[in-house]
Each structure stands twice: as structure tokens, then as C-alpha cells.
Amino acid sequence: MPPRKRLLAAAVTAAACLGAQALSNTAASAADEVVSRGVTIPAFYNPPAQLPAANGTLVRSEPLPLALSLPGLDGPLPGRATRLMYKSTDSNGKPVAVTGAYIEPSATWKSGGPRSLVALAPGTMGQGDQCAASLGLEHPLTINGRTTSVGYEDLAIYRLLTRGVAVVVTDYDGLGATDRLHTYVNRVDEGHAVLDAVRAARSVPGASVTHDSRVGLFGYSQGGGATASAAELQASYAPDVTLSGTYAGAPPADLTAVTKAIDGSELAGALGWSLNGFLQSDPSLRPIAEAHLNTAGKAALSDLSTMCVGDAIFGYGYAKSTKWTTDGRSISDIIAATPTLQQFLDHQRIGTLKPSGPVRVATGASDNLVPHAQARQLAVDWCRKGADITYQPVVLPDVGSALLNHFAPLLTDQGDAIGWLTDRLSGRPAPSTCSSLPAQP
């Protein structure tokens, strides 16, 4: 299939299966609102000048209407939602405001004890503030033709809610919140945001979860990296958050490998989001980046910083970073030849710490966007550290599209993944596949 047709097929499949989300019309004063790519971000997302001291403290909250309907279902997700802003700490040790949403299920929790809670870490949404998952929960339509977040997490949220599990969704650092750029795939920022979302959920007015509630983490792709990181960081950063189980689907654990894979793919725009995020986290890298980026590269990074995933697929699908650099080398080649850049990526590596609690790592055997081999290596690394790991390769045919090879396992494995996670939330012990993992690549 020609590249342009594959691009169209990927976009149509994503739209049909996942659905585009839209922004709310939350009341706000015009002075406090921010406009991102023609979409108005409500004043709720504008952080205050001062944040609380304790991580996970609620900064503000308000009711969040759930107007989303799923194919074959009438009405919204089965629960009552609250929009959140809470305090977290970024990878530089600085306070940061993170937004998200908590959803109290309509269904009863039937497995004994207080209602369980799952922190859901969204997959790639983009880098514009309008792409935030909490904004996308409110309406199923774009506004004035402008793309906002895509709702491929909504089926997982629905499945959890129908089992009586409360769900808290994080928007991550700088996605939604208007004071900084989203630090895409920064493992510390994302891991902290996930763990602090759990803390914030416990103090949401009207929430039935408590400090005694069992806690699970669920994430795929970017979200899989975030939950994997959170499981590693829990012991040192959030000892008050005991993890009963973590699902890390298609985790980008090795960004050196992922950077090579996404370059020239349908999701090449994610390379720009990564670079923008790295420069937000470590401004000292900016002179190095600017020395290697040509006018087209700098323009692409600026443009992508306000885009959601749908816009990026159409605007930058199959883009090659060799067109963005002054000497025609790829971004990966420049990183490999620049110790400071390589060290930054090495610091983002997930798998160097033992995760807390059992973890299910799932990855598509045909996934060449977030490569299968590096995700499997994460499971191997964790097993060698004595972790309780269930490794699940998802074997599907290669359909000739990196994007579809990556996203298909999200849907085909999701029921089993949620079943595994709810078993952990019900107190059932997790099986481990570590004894058989190293033998088969």
C-alpha cells in the first residue's frame, strides 16, 4: 500500500475505532483563558502562582460532564466525573501543577473492602494543551474543525467503571496546564504525575476511595512508559501508594530505540514532541539542538508543540528528521554522536530499578513503532531484578502500517489486561512468567 494510502487508512481506522474528543465550554473569565491552535483552554487549567507543599494535594476541582458515548452504548461513561488540578514534582525537583479527571463509578465494587482505584495514564495525545485527556472526556466532537484529544482510552475506562473500579486519569506535566510545555516521555515527570494522581483521587469531594483502597495502574504506549516508570519510582517517591498491580502496554522503555523507530513513520511528529519535551526538562540542551536544526526543523518543532496526534499524523506523517538537520544526519545519528544528548536519553531508560508490585508487560510482536524487542527487554531486566512480571507478547499479523501494528494490540489485548489488573485489585496473586522469559527472543 502506498505511504499516502497507508496514512489515510491509519487515520480513518483511528477515527472510526477511537473517536475524536472535544473541548469543554467550562465557564471562565476571558482574561484567564488561553488559546491553543484556535481552541480556548478554560481558565481552570491556568495554574496559580503558588502550589501546595505536599505532592498529590488538590489545587482545585470542579464537576466534569461526561458526554461521551461509545459505539453500541447510549449516554455517557457510567460514572460521575470531577476535573482535577493537583500538585506534583517534576524531574528537576520543582513543583508543578498537573490536571486530570477522577471518575466515580455508578457500579458497585463487589470484591470486598473499599472500592479499588486505577490510575490511567493516557497514550500519546500530542503536545498542545487542547490535547489533554481530561478535556477530551467531555464532548465527542471537535470544535470549529480543530482536533483535540483522541479517545482510545475510553473503552478501558468504561470497562473499569463497569467493574466498580474508580478511575483517575492524569494529563501529565504541561498537557492541559497552561504554564509549561508537555514533557513528552520524560519518565520521572510522568511517573510522578501518575502516582500523585492516586493521592489526589483520595481527597476528591464525594470519592469513595480511601487510603485502604487497592491501587492499580493502567497505561499503553506513552501511558505504558508512564505506569512502568511509576512502578519503579513508587518506593522512593510515593511509599504511601501501595500498588496491587501495574499494566504497562507497549512501553517506550528505551528511547534510543524508539527514536530510531518513529523517525519516518506515520507518527514521526512524536519525534518533535520528544525533542520539545527534552528541551523543556533541560534547557541546557537547547544550544546543542539549535546548532543541529535547520530552519525547517525549528519550524517543525514549533508547529508540533501545539498539535494533537490527529493533526500530527496528517501534517508530519512519514517525515524524516534528515530534512530537519543542518548536515542531513538523522536525529538518532546526532544523538549517538553527542555524549550530552545520549546521556540524557540513557537517563530516561526504564528498567534500571525494580518495580513495586506485580507488573504485566504486553507488547505486539509486530510492533515496530514502539519496538517489541525493547519492551521485551524491559521485562527481562525487571525479572533479573527479582520482580514479579507477567510478560505477554501479542501476536498479530503485520499489516504494513507501523501505526496500526502499534495500536492493534491495545484493543485485542485490552480485555485480558483489564481482567489481569482487576484480579490483582481483588487480592488474587499474580502468576509470573520470568522463569521462561529469557529463553525466547
TrEMBL record:
InterPro entries: AB_hydrolase_fold (IPR029058), Lipase_secreted (IPR005152). PROSITE patterns: PROKAR_LIPOPROTEIN. Pfam families: LIP (PF03583). Gene3D superfamilies: 1.10.260.130, alpha/beta hydrolase (3.40.50.1820). The keyword Signal applies. The keyword Signal applies. This is Triacylglycerol lipase. It comes from Streptomyces monashensis.
